[in-house]
Amino acid sequence: MFAPPTRAERVSPAGNMRKRYLKLVRQALKSLRHPRLRNRPWWQVPMRRIGDRALWVPCRDTVAMGLTVGLFFSMMLMPFQMIPAAIMTVWLRANVPFALLGCWVSNPLTTPAFLYMQFRLGDWMRETLSVPMPGFLCKVQFDVAGVGQLNAASFILGMFTSGVLLACCAYPLVHLFSAIMPHHLPVRRQRAQSAGPKNRLSSRSAGIGKESAAP
Question: Is residue 136 part of a domain?
Fold first, then answer.
């Protein structure tokens, strides 16, 4: 999919960034082709669309949208956050590796702090801003060890609000980064070398993928 970097690129800052991005691509493909996923019939159709090369070549707008999607789903209390993030990324034609990277903002080390912050944010919005919530959610209470009793309405409100706030911050920050260092993140996609008329990824080329040639 990508041409190998030259010796000059390998020692330059842009070359180092390219190597890190290729490593990110390998990790993303490994996650998407996990044995528990690739044999599922419902996952095979979106996986074929995820193989579109345009979703893997980085540029300003696709990276910004991909990171926006990933950070939003990272704030959602749900298992397998990367699956809906990848599906949403395909639908929006955004960058898949950065979307999956954004999902890892919440991890076993950071999740407890995020959960407490989301509850406090939702509680503040309900008390200070008088944000209305469904009555049945306001009645749901649950105990968390070391934290105390939490309200479901405050938590859900804080969860979605924190996801939207992170997503809104990601897009302009990526554009700012591209404006300051355009050699690291170009505005438009760089044209990759073509090995055939179909722009699809395959896991057989250097662990990253190659295009499937037409018969």
Answer: no
**Cα torsion angle, 177, 180, 183, 188, sign:** positive
pTM over 0.85: no
> Residue 202 falls within a domain, yes or no?
no
Look at residue 72 and tell me if it is in a domain: yes
Mean pLDDT value across residues 22-46? 76
Of residues 151 and 213, the one with the higher pLDDT is: 151
Instruction: Look up the domain containing 19 and give its range.
Output: 7-106+170-180
pLDDT, averaged across the chain: 78
pLDDT band (50, 70, 90) for residue 4: low
